[in-house]
Specification:
With 189 residues, the protein is an alpha+beta fold. Helices cover 21% and strands 38% of the residues. The longest helix has 16 residues.
């Protein structure tokens, strides 16, 4: 038992060292710029990867190679697909391609099969994660073309302009997107 004490102390020190990141002055400036961008309510996110929750049925489809080379049921390259999420004032507009399962009752519209919305969201909240230098945005919004479908969306933005969008739907399986955030005036509107 005496021999285990030094190892336990060493293990505790290693764990405590990894949990506290020290940010530089430039890191803090970049984090403040990100906060200012979110506060301006004038930015867009373009995603390059979709990560659906891979169910057994979706995995079967993905294994048929219908998604193209280099893609899998859990990670799909959408960099060549049209997709955007735009925050402009109090309105949020978005088009994100959807991959996954649709539950019963959702209705199917073959002209608008993606996640599409253009409205003033409900419960729009911004929170700061100072330990990770991340900004989280959460809101609820209805689908533009499916009256029965609503989304709970969580966006996480980082000072290096990386983004993560998590979408939970009333009628579809959950999906995440990774991409980049930029000022709206810099973006091609």
């Amino acid at each position: 038992m005496k021999h285990l004490l030094p190892y336990c102390m060493l293990f505790a020190m290693v764990l405590s060292c990894g949990s506290n990141k020290v940010f530089t002055e430039q890191d803090n400036k970049d984090y403040q710029k990100l906060q200012d961008l979110v506060a301006s309510k004038s930015f867009e996110i373009v995603s390059n990867s979709a990560m659906p929750i891979a169910s057994a049925s979706f995995s079967k489809v993905a294994n048929s190679r219908i998604l193209g080379p280099g893609n899998s049921a859990g990670n799909i390259d959408i960099s060549s697909n049209s997709n955007r999420l735009v925050v402009k004032g109090d309105s949020i507009r978005g088009f994100l391609p959807f991959y996954g399962d649709q539950n019963f009752g959702g209705g199917y519209n073959r002209n608008h099969s993606g996640i599409e919305f253009n409205a003033i969201p409900e419960d729009y909240k911004v929170s700061l994660d100072d330990k990770k230098h991340a900004v989280n945005i959460r809101f609820k919004i209805a689908d533009q073309y499916r009256s029965s479908e609503r989304y709970d969306i969580i966006i996480t933005l980082y000072p290096n302009h990386k983004s993560n969008i998590r979408v939970q739907s009333t009628n579809r399986s959950s999906i995440e997107y990774t991409g980049r955030v930029s000022k709206l005036e810099d973006a091609k509107e």
